Each structure stands twice: as C-alpha cells, then as structure tokens.
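**Fold tokens**
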Amino acid sequence: MLSRLFKSRARFDDPHAEVRCAAVLALSDEEALGFQADLAELARADGDTAVRRAALGKLQQAQFLEPFLTDPNPEIVRCAAESIARDVDAAHLLHHAPVRAAAIRIARDLDAVAGLIGDVGFDHELIRLAVESRHPKVRVAVADKLMKESSLIELERLSRERDKNVNRLARTRLDVIKQARAEVDRALRRAEELTHIVETQLKPESDPLFAARFGVVKHDWHANIARHAQGITTLMAHGLSAPVLTTWAARFEAGVARAEAVLPVPAATAPALAEAPPAVVTIPTAADAVAFEPALAGLVTLLQAIAEGSLDAFADSAEITIMNRRLQDQWLATADHRAPPPEMAERFHAVTHTLTLLAEAARRLGDHAAELDRAAVAVPDAPTADSPQDYENLWAQQRQARHAGEQLARTLHRINWPADQPQPQRLLDVDQCAAALAAFDKQCHDSHEALLTALRDVITGLEVEISAGNLAAATGLENDGRRILHCLP
C-alpha cells in the first residue's frame, strides 16, 4: 500500500511514531489526493494516535472520513469531524453531532452556522462550543442558548479567562436569576406579613381606620402577587422552580372574606337603608373630595419635590419616610368617616406606590454603599507612560479599571433604581465614576493602538533600510522595534 506513497518504506516501518507521523505530513495535498483510500487504511490500522490524526488530516473526501465518526477514540472522531466540516460538499453529513459541532467550532461567519447552533440539543455541548469556537460572535451566539443555572455557572467558570463577552453574558443571567429569587423570597415574606395583618391585626370593632387600612392591605396584596408572578416567570424561563403563594393566598382570601363581612352597615339599620336611594350612600360628594384633598396634595407635592430635586430620594430618605407616613395617616383617618372619590383613591394608591418603590430602592442603595465607595477610589489618574515598566503598570491599571467598571455595573443592576424616577445625587456621582473608568479604559486602548501604529511604521522603515543596504539605520530601527514590543501587553 504505502510503497505507492513513499519511495522507501523505511520511514513508515520505523518503530518511532514521530518518524512515521513526519512521513505522512511530508505528503503534499496533491499527492495525498491520489491516495485517499491508502491514507484511510493507514488512519484505521496504525496504533499511534498522532499518526492516525496526521493521516486523517490528509484525507479530503468525506466518503473516507465518515467511518471514523464512530471510532472509539474521541480525538479521532473530532479530527475526522473537523475535516468533514471543512468540505463544502459534505453538507449531507451535518446531521452527525460531531460534524455539526466541528462546523460551529471552526466557523468564521455566524450567519453560516446560525441554523446549526439551533440544532445543538445538549447543554454540555453548548458550553464546550461557547468556549472553543474560533469566532467571537459564534461563541456569544452559542452561549446565548444556555438558560439553565447549572450550565451558566459552568460556562462562567470556563469562560472567565477566555472570553469576556461570553463571561459577561453568563454573569448577567446569573444575576437575573439571583434577583428573581430575591423578588420571590421578598414576595413570600410580604405575603406572610399581609396574611398575618388580615388574620390578627385588623380589628373592625376597635380600629377606627379599619376600612381604609383594609383597602390598603388589599392593594398591597395585589401588587405583591404581581411581583411574585414576575419572579416566577423569570425563574421558569431558566428552568427553575419556586415556591408558590397557594397556602398564603387561601388564608388571605379567607381573612378578606371575614373582614368584608363586617364592612356593611349592621343589620338593625339595613332595612332603613334599603328603602333609601342607593346614590345617597355610595356616590362621594364634593365635600368628600375637599376632605381628602390636603393629604393627597401633600403626597403629590412630596413626590414632585423629589422629581424636581428639592428632596434627594436617598440622602433625604428618612425625612421623606416621615412625611409620607404622616400624610398617609391623614388620608386613612379621613377615609374612616367617608369614602374617597374613585379617581382620588386611584391617584393616592399610584403616588404611595411610587414612594414605596423609591424607599425600597433607597434601602438597596444604602446596602451597596460600600461597594460604590470602592469603585469610586478605583478610578486611576490620566494614563501616562514612557518606559516599558510604565506601560506594564498602565496595562495592569487598565485591567483593574475594567474589573471595577464591570463590578459597578453589576452593583447598579442589583440596586435597580426605578428608571422612570429621578436619580439621587449618590447615583449621579456613580455615573460619573463609571464614565471616568470607561474614559480611562479608552485612553489606554488608544495608547495601545498608538504603539501598534508605531511598530508598523518601524517595520516598514526597517524593510526599506534593509532593501537599501543601510544596515546601521536598520539596526537603530530594530532597537526601536524591540523597545516598542517590550511596551506592549
């Protein structure tokens, strides 16, 4: 067989695998094309993996490569699959999982393999492709298919030192899962609190503000249900389960039913009211609107002061909380004697809900204040470097600045300040810090590009001087090039 391939069989019969492997690699592609069957037999029969892989590398026809897709050696399967993937006439073999994975791994264009990525069905294959694929856009597209938490954790670990974009995608989704879990846990705790309030704390016979407090509790319950549903939806999208509110909902509804039973007027006066026109009892009058106006106007003014910047939602959070509670108590005290007009009640709930969101966001901001302070001190001075040692320190500062910027972005995501509300000065300072970190990173990048441009100019000048025979000038340029190389990261 190999007598047709080699002028002498001595190198193939050599007991050293390195010599046999070199004999195969010495074949040109034109020579190998005429002996595909012989190379396939060599790849099948030789006992050394390196020799087999060398022979497979010379195979150019899919009909000889396809049998190796079932080889017990994973390295041989991978080598054969990559050779098939390079063959534009072997599209009919892309249904094989190893060939499909190889085509994605070696792809240079995302559009060419977008359909193949959708056919990968196992997370462990997606994780490997998201790390090993050559094209950065292909890696991100493959990683985008991963949703399970365990897979994202593994991807984050493997991509930490390989691809920052894939790693950022994994970390972002893990943060979303963490935030959704926190929302679900918060909703469960709030459901327990509201159920306890309905069952034990609302006393219609002794609480003069019973009716008003009862309405607020029901409004809070529905808002909490929406928060829980949103968290559950996010977790289900990532293949995770979460505790439901069925038990608390049943107890809350039972408590609401008991509370609503005492809301109507006592039975002794019911007949007289039954004979009276219903409109006299149920329709709020202009006097009712006037009675509720001070409390509602105070709440609206408070929210407007925050929007205009007169009050800082974070720095003045304690003062805002006191004013908010006083005005809500004033509203509830009025509601105990008369029903508020529907449009005013809707406005009241909307304003108090916004103030609650701001209070929760201010609390989260306070919890992460230490992290924000660390990011603020991580902003370096303007980059300056002359010597290789200076540049080495500069690249280290750039890595630290990027890391600080990424940590800052994750912290802001966890704070989750309402997008439709004005930011406090504390967050505005954080935005300036993030902009400073990004500006420093860009300046370092510009310095790197300037070094590369200078190096290209030196190489061009070196070629010109060598061609002209000016060895002294060439030596000087060579020294300049070495200095620039030592400055690069």
